[in-house]
């Protein structure tokens, strides 16, 4: 039979079901002229959207200055958060957050380490104490440290949890920092005290960003705006002793993993330049450096609340966290991110259990509230099918593929198809609304994912399933690694059909894949750079390939 391939661009291990397939978290002193000049530049960029994301992604220079787009800090009933200052289009770059303190761990350092049970993204949510729509009981939830991703979740560090040593080192960096931006942000970051005098203040993101290059070592010439940011109310400025800095670090630390696609693109650009090549394409076959795990404090990122239907995506690049609007957002709408990683594509009960373990809080976003109203019997059915996929079908399919047991693969394919029929019948029986059905299907993502893999294992890739997987991931978590991975599989399958060139199907599939990339990396991503990222994803040294005969 013809060989069938599923390829992933993510070099960090990711589980598809239980298959080990790699898929595709004082005082301010600054020269007035320099501070005002930088602030003016930030303001100009924010108003006009002038940020060359292609240059950032391909440049060998580190990202040193934060960028603030059309967002602002606001006080939500659950704490500090971010909202859009105008309506946003999908793919707009909203923030470029640079760390106040940072530790990086290479893949070699972490080799052999046992993945922790908690997730690093928990710290981001715990820094606010609550999740949008949660009840007040979550306010006092204690932070258990860092947790699983983008990301070894999609947003940041799935294989690593910040250790006590990491916390101590980051706190020492904060204590020894002379950065005006760092000293100013320390007045706003949560230390667990929920002091009214502190929590009543809202950070001015633009002014704080303008302090990025300034030092607090010289107090002369500090502008009034900078002084106001540093200590909005001198009577409320907190005393930053060692214990307070440890509390701030513990509650705000996050773990992110460098985006491997961007890392590979950067390495290819460097290799092409060193070899005298004229483009990044000339360096795509060069070596690939494993992504580093970054442990740090990205203050703007900490303001993003969790949602099970997030409207932003986050990637880590050159120590910076880049936040992009992953879908259209209305003016003055709350901005949110995914703290659950791949668990975002699980049933409501599993998502809530994971978030409760991570943050002690409950998500009450629109998706969660809608799923909560679904008939209890249907919810139980979904939970049982999902558990069967995780506990039984996934491992059995992995073993059948490994030993090339065609009969077992066909039996598992038929079992999964039967599950799909049961779900379709339940949608009709319970008269589920269209939007609710989409969310529920996304919660059964593992079922459709394993069905697609089993079909390919039996020698027949189902293009409709690939299209469904890309659509579901794009609806719930646009710009995620799942979204890009399955959009690419769909495009590749359509491209293998000669008729697709004439009926417009290939053009639509390409548009879908481009949209997935732009939701992750920004709509400013040039078509050339998109093509280079896509070409890099096909490089043999960057993929784990499974052949089904």
TrEMBL record:
SUPFAM superfamilies assigned to the protein according to its UniProt record, in alphabetical order: SET domain (SSF82199)
Biased composition (Acidic residues): 133-153
UniProt region (Disordered), positions on chain: 114-159, 214-240
Domain of life: Eukaryota
PANTHER family found in the cross-reference section: TPR DOMAIN PROTEIN (AFU_ORTHOLOGUE AFUA_5G12710)
Protein name: SET domain-containing protein
